[in-house]
Amino acid sequence: MAIKKFPGFIDVHVHLRDPGATHKEDFQTGSRAAVKGGFTFVIDMPNNPTPTISPEALQEKIRLAEQKSIVDIGFHYGTDGQNTETFKTVIDNEKVFGLKIYCNYTTGTLLVEDQLLWNNIFREWESKKPILVHAEKEKLPYMIALSKKYNRHLHVCHISLTEEVSMVRRAKEIGIYISAGVTPHHLFLTEKDVNRLGSLAMMKPPLGTQADQEALWKGLRDGTIDLIETDHAPHTKEEKEKTPAPFGVPGLETAVGLMFKAVHEGKISEREVIKFFHDNPARIFNVPTHENTFIMLDPDQSYIMGEDGYETKCHWSPFDGWKLYGQIQMVVIKGKTILEKRKLI
Ligand code: NCD
Ligand code: ZN
After folding, report:
1. Is 14 in the pocket of ligand 1 (CB under 6 A)?
2. Ordered structural domains, the chain, with CATH
3. Confidence band (pLDDT; 50, 70, 90) for 1?
């Protein structure tokens, strides 16, 4: 057993809820949760109550993040299909890392289901920065076809079903510019866990079957799935206990411990953890890296999740009480120590 150095991890998919839903999370608590979990760079999603679909909303987020965050935060711009004229204003902004399209119903108001609008969005996003899609099942082939038509980089978010893994694999085989991410909750939970956890295990896309889960692990190992994204989607416990409960689970503080549990169980290698949490997200989203940004942890050391509380404002996790591995001991960002002996400074 030994504490080792790893590059600062990158999470390309978080919902930090700032501005508009800061009773769930804000840039301060969300960035603290990121550091506690080993992430030194996160990219925030646009589905706020006032969605990030205008240059003004984007500037407001950038301003708030600069004020409150203890890590660097990038942003995915959003679209409702009507704001394509604003793309040219934000596309080259160095804080923008991609464009998000919601093709399925989830938290927020950004659902776009119209094929004509999808087409316009792909045509107008004239950039190498990825178009990220929330596209379940039968929606995914449309996105793949549009990525081919306009030669845009497509990133498939939180892939969760066997058939989606197959679609991405086939698209890669025929040379489509595509990448895919999977969440730790889809890798470690199945629909059966909903019996135990109730609404705390409800999120979009929903948890799949054990066969789906096996397909996801296979996809990770054979390179079909490129990275792990937490889809950190905090809601308060009170909100989750209401009917209907909002969709989403927090993930920033549990993701790395879960993946080192997978290493401990021989499911993946330590090298692959670095690939999924650093190398591939940095390459695919062109995230700036810094030689003096790193984290320290002991991959063989176990700990109980939640024993020392949570930094996320929602203060819960579907993995509470789980035995995980590789608790983050130290975090240094651009030469500055942010976390030492497991405590935020
Ligand atoms: C996310 C949220 O709450 O913002 N919820 C979720 O279940 N994943 C939205 C999303 O990414 O779909
Ligand atoms: Zn999400």
Report:
1. no
2. 4-344 (3.20.20.140)
3. confident
